[in-house]
Amino acid sequence: MLWLLNSIGLLILISSLVSAQGPSPSRFSLKTAVEDTFLTRGLRSNIVAEIRIMGDSLTWFGTGQGLALFDGHYVYAHQTTSESLNNAQFTTLLPVGGIPAISVMGDTMAVAFSGDDGSIQMGFGLTLTYDAGDTNGITWTYLDQPVDNVADTLVPFGEGYYRQLPVTVPQANVSYDASLSGNYLWIASWAGGLRRYHLSKKSWENVPLPMDQQSALSLCQDTAFVDTTGISILANYYLNPRDPEDGGNHNHKAFSVLAFGDTVWVGTADGINRGLIIKEVVEISPGIFEILNCIEWEHFSYPEDGLSGNFVVGLAKQVWNSQITIWAATMNADQVGEMRGLSYSRDDGLTWETALLGERVYNVTAKDSLVFAATASGLWKSLDGTNWAKFDAAVDLTFMNQKQILTDIVYTAVLDERDTIPKLWIGTPDGVAQSSDIQGSMWSVFQANYDSSEVYAYPNPFSPLSHNQLGDDGYIRFHTGNVVNTEISLDIFNFAMEKVHKKTFNLNLYRGAIKWNGRGQDGNHVSNGVYFARLNFAFSKNHAPKDYWTKFIVVK
Predict the structure, then answer these.
(1) pTM given for the model
(2) CATH numbers and ranges of domains, the chain
């Protein structure tokens, strides 16, 4: 069942489909789009599931069709290549695919890619750069999606070795989350488990997590290992991401990761794991010493530890009044009584509390006293973790702009404090938006523009029961191109050319998209079929308003 949940969740998140970050010392300034060799103006996809802040002016977006950025003025899409990239290859172009994870640390940035093989989600590898602020073009290192060799059944970690089931394919091996901290890039890759990449040694290693029934796992104590034929092996342990009925462990399916300092938090399909990273010097042979990097794990799960649910899809750290709070977006997995919502701990996991029970939370972010939860019903804000207020859906109030986020769903949110007045970013299935303050009183909306000069309707075909769900309705949007007069009339006709809807948009007063909810003049949804829209407006000051026609299909 969890494999099915995972597939559905990814399709929602990236339609093919927050971590350590630090300041950059320099300001990024772009050349024009014509001069750039690695950027093109505009978004390729309205699905934005990741947002990361970098330096003085850069904001990176992970979309359903690749990486994009905002330089303070315009949105650009990073160019891609459909050609196969080799492991460790340097490239200025990125792989084709959706982006489920981005992590930023100074000018260092890691980006994960995913897609499918026609039936199942799969990882398309990662790219890593140490110069994400390079104005002449970013040099990336491409890394294959980490997989094991079939013979990798006994693997070293900590004080000895552990047994594992090798994961040898990229299918169901998707890096849903990433976190850069210190010398490591940590990734949570579902069936691929928890892995970390040493930035200097340029090598991957699997990181064993507790099995489902283990409340703790030591990888640092000699007593945790038994000597068999001269090899110290972790006692009574087997890393296996299969379902429990197949002898596996839900806790070995890693979905979210948050690393900072000497601590790493990992969310799985069986709760939350807190790892304390221990560094010690060991003598591996006479006169030869090595720094041992091992982990002491604690495992928290429903119902014993108070989580709302065991499927943990997002993690965030809050620091306020010298207190660290760990926030987790938790969902119901497979036990009776589990609920969607937020789970949080103010004492390193010793105790857990819950909030927003019943809400499908995708991500959570926190800064000082503020906590933001990105959910299926919208963006929520809290000052204490107990009392929550929900934002209205984002509408661009710029005169004659006709832009609006036509969905309740918010995948992610980020607070941007680089200017005197903090700003707020949200990523949604219908584009990305920036508020000029943290109240959401003035939004700028950025969306893919497939043909700026044409009149068309989208999505097409349109379902009022599933597309652009906002409030109690679903909407089709009409793109008009340039409009110079302050009135747009919209008439909808069925295939028999009978008028089923009429509305006039007074742009002096109206703000938002030119849209229709699929309901006829009687208030009911219209029947399935072919429909025609007639829009009347002027696209130039030298021309009077005229009619523009477009055709679309309604399929409920």
Answers:
(1) 0.91
(2) 456-554 (2.60.40.4070)
